[in-house]
Amino acid sequence: MSSPAERYADSRRRQAALRSELARFVSTCPFPLDDFQEEACSALERGDGVLVAAPTGAGKTVVGEFAVHLGLARGLKTFYTTPIKALSNQKYLDLVERHGADRVGLLTGDTSVNPRAQVVVMTTEVLRNMLYSGSRDLDQLGYVVMDEVHYLADRFRGPVWEEVMIHLAPQVRVVSLSATVSNAEEFGAWLGEVRGSTAVVVSEHRPVPLTQHMMVGGRILPLYASSDSPDPVAYLDDNLNEDPGASGGAPTGSQPPSPSVSPKGAGEDSPQINPELLTAVDAARRATTRPDSRSLGYSSTGRAYRPRRAGGSRVPGQRRGGSVRERRRRDRAGASRAGQGQDRGYGRERSSRDRAYGRGIRHGRLSPPSRVAVVTALERARLLPAIVFVFSRAGCEQAVSQVVAAGTVLTTQSEAEQIRQVIERRTATIPSADLDVLGFHAWTHALERGVAAHHAGLLPVFKETVEELFRAGLVKVVYATETLSLGINMPARTVVLESLRKWNGSAHVPLSPGEYTQLTGRAGRRGIDVEGHAVVLAADDVEPDTVSSLASRRTYPLVSAFRPTYNMAVNLLARTSRTRAREILESSFAQFQADRSVVETAAQIRRKRRRLEDLEQAMTCSLGDFREYARLRQDIAEAEADLSRQGATAHRAETARTMTSLSRGDVVTYRKGRRHLHGVVLEVGTDRSGTPALTVVGEDGRVHTLTPDTSPQGVLRVGRLPVDQGTDPRSTRDRERVVGRLRHALRAGELDTGRRPHRSRPGRARAHEDRANQEDAGNIAARIDQLRQQMRSHPCHGCPDREEHARTGRRWAKQLAEINRLHARVETRTGTIARLFDAVCQVLVDLGYLEPVGGQHEQLRVTGAGRLLARIYAERDLLVAECLRTGVWESLGSDELAAALSAFVYEPRVPARLVGPPVAPGSSLGQALRAQHNVARRVNDLEQLAGIEPSSGSEPALAGSVLAWCQGADLAEVMDGGELTAGDFVRWCKQVLDVVSQVASLPTLSADPARAQAVRTVSQRAAEAARELDRGVVAWSGV
């Protein structure tokens, strides 16, 4: 039993707790705090910084809101930062509702609301810019909340998070809110080093439990076997297969259940996969080849698809012509339906992928259920509202179109009326002409039925309407891309994943366990649902053990993407010495992680060194030094590889030249796998790296993209065919027309089909054209002969155990190479950031943004041009500054300036493709765009010399659209014939507006005297351009 003194002390602590700010804050919360929330808030009130890592939906933001409460109570400012503007807008509205509009502000680069408020919500970049400019708004700053801090792993924008954490004043307390990461302690240790005392609070607990499922055909089955309690949707049995969208599959009771298994790589304690699910998957695979009228065997026109084998070949007995005619009839009927009341983005013809989704043909493969079947099953199982992640904007729109076309209605008349009222309120200020362009009527039609899309290509006001309706429970199904997983407050009862692969900007890659957890974390509404549900659609490449391995793993390490930038370098050197700047940069999380890994790498080197000594003993030869002999053999192998690579490089260069010389309509022969094909060139362009790329329709009816890398055998022109202007390789009808002409020409012998592309022998390619290559090849061949002569004359060459020693020698050489590689890793990771900073500084010195002090490169001074660069915060900051410095934009009007700047902002989803009207090459804008391209090439050359990854270049595809908009064109004119959605156009215009506004603010800074007036003139035109840009649909996206 405690003593009276201890009871008295405990009573005092309880009384103090009741008087604390935390107690006052808790009294305003609608529910008691969880343990992790209370622990983090208590640490914050003690004066510590905090890192909170918890699952999506666990309530991390409560800790951030307590920081706001503390700031207000103590008379200090609080900045609440988020990674994206949509999240900032949403958080601003939440805080205004709680604290009032007079106490809360918003800053997102293009939007400024009450910026002097005591609480300001902003994007992280805005805070970084304030730190570098020494803004007076930082006075009295007490707390900074960094929401979604795991975003610092983002390659492009992640470094900003670390810049902020490093440069914030020491007295500012930082609240870092992160998804669950596996190295939270490591991140917390770094925060402790750079920010002082930091409490690390990690919670794996979900307030709403998550149940994992898979959907096979029309059945939703639990992923895991459970003997504890029945699954809430386990009652979904064969009666669901009566659904007209259900996919086939034998009943569960058709054979004994498979034994439950653990996911690949799982331990003994891992959950067991549901044997009923395994049985259902096996039964679906064994189903015979037949058209399934109950599944997606119908097109949008109601006509059945003809059966095909796996890979698309026809089943025996199917007539060739019938299938083509049937498909053409479907296309015409589908286009007709799409034109009845349908607008941009809805009612389009389905892609080949969507036809595959809809085919429902049972041919021994596991096909995913249709989107209509999924919605029907979710509704019957009472698992709505649901978010369905599609990973494709076009896929989201197609999904909405398909579900609506099937007659699906998920709302009551009363709900539909409420939806109409919200739509009218949200869109009241948008002119009707613009609404027509935006696909308003089809969008409204879908919303009234409870279905919507959500992706970055939507107009912001459309996205915000969907979010409001979904939170209100009026919209039941939202088809979304993964951007919805980033903090947007749209919890659902169920999350559905159509695929476990996504496009990362350059390739289709599998989801990581962390991404899977982030996406499925949206399932389960606190205070509404007893549990949330994650449903993955079973398919050929989506097996139960694959899903289980993602669902059961929590490996999501936070890896820094920090790197010095040009803007960062000049801002640092404007405030401190080069030595001190290096020290600041070496305090980054990136260097912290690198230094920790060096210790582990050194231990690996010691272990491998011991193994190397053992191998040296094993290959001892009495005739001589076998290590020397082994090195000769290794040198010969490397020289032969060099010779082979040189030949491949020369052949690749010749293939690139051949591709560049081709044009639309040329017929080429090329190799695809083991087959030689003929194809018609429809497009000649370049990929993102500037490598030539051909879009070819082959005689097999498929579209192939050929580059020198994907066509090592080369391409050969064998003839030419007429191709209609405007032929689109994505159009099924256009492809069939081109393929028909090609096949006719092949049958008629009109092409030189006897020739085949072939790969030249290594080192011999183009030797008659390129004397330098020939000389290099000759030098390498002479060296190989010399090495072979040395090898034959070596004493160990005559050893009877030579080959046995040689095998040991190869292992020795491999081990030595591994040790050298690890040594190089240690050297590169020690001081990595400082070396990269030095390389950045060298480029800036070469271009005149920095200059040595007294001829000493160790001391650098920021020049007038450098002061301009210090105020340009953009992805291509140096390119913008260089165009200003060299006068590229001096002859441009305000509208042309905005269009020119768009080329340093726009990042195309498909490289080398125009998204709007073209710019005349001879116009002043066309000449400026060409000059920008030359500026980018010159900078890239210097970066290559310095060993820096080249900056992104100039992308002029959007310039024509921006020019038209600034000249007063309406939305219909700008969007006509372009491939950009209205939402994308607005989003890019907002980003262009941000950079234009930065250029407009430059006259207040001192540039080089000779350039000051010219820069001032450009800045004045930029101010005009900002007004021209910020109108109509572009101006509607503010809060």
Gist of the model:
With 1039 residues, the chain is of the alpha/beta class.
Topology at a glance:
Layout: H1 4-19, H2 21-27, H3 35-46, E1 49-53, H4 61-74, E2 77-82, H5 85-99, E3 104-107, E4 112-113, E5 119-123, H6 124-133, E6 141-146, H7 159-167, E7 173-178, H8 184-195, E8 198-202, E9 210-216, E10 219-222, H9 275-286, E11 290-291, H10 320-338, H11 352-359, E12 361-362, H12 371-380, E13 386-389, H13 393-405, H14 413-427, H15 432-437, H16 440-448, E14 451-454, H17 460-471, E15 477-480, E16 494-497, E17 501-503, E18 508-510, H18 513-520, E19 532-537, H19 544-552, H20 566-575, H21 578-585, H22 589-618, H23 626-661, E20 666-672, E21 675-686, E22 692-698, E23 703-706, E24 716-720, H24 732-747, H25 771-793, H26 802-829, H27 832-847, E25 850-853, E26 856-862, H28 864-869, H29 877-886, H30 894-902, H31 924-946, H32 959-966, H33 971-975, H34 982-1000, H35 1009-1029, H36 1032-1035
Parallel strand pairs: 1-7, 1-8, 2-5, 2-6, 3-5, 6-7, 9-19, 13-15, 13-16, 14-15, 16-19
Antiparallel strand pairs: 3-4, 9-10, 11-12, 17-18, 20-21, 20-24, 21-22, 22-23, 25-26
Name the descriptors:
single chain, 1039 residues, alpha/beta, Rossmann fold, eight-stranded mixed beta sheet, seven-stranded mixed beta sheet
Task: Tell me which CATH architecture of the largest domain applies here.
Answer: 3-Layer(aba) Sandwich
Q: Helicity, in percent? A: 40-55%
The major pleated sheet works out as: 8 strands, mixed
Percentage beta strand: 5-15%
End-to-end separation in angstroms reads: 59 Å
Largest sheet: spatial strand order: 4-3-5-2-6-7-1-8
Q: What would CATH call the homologous superfamily of the largest domain?
A: P-loop containing nucleotide triphosphate hydrolases
Number of H- or I-type helical stretches: 36
Low-confidence stretches: 227-260, 288-363, 758-769
Tally of structural domains: 4
Radius of gyration: 32 Å
CATH level-1 class of the largest domain:
Alpha Beta
The total beta strand count reads: 26
CATH topology of the largest domain: Rossmann fold
Average pLDDT works out at 79
Based on helices, strands and strand pairing, what is the structural class?
alpha/beta
Shape: globular
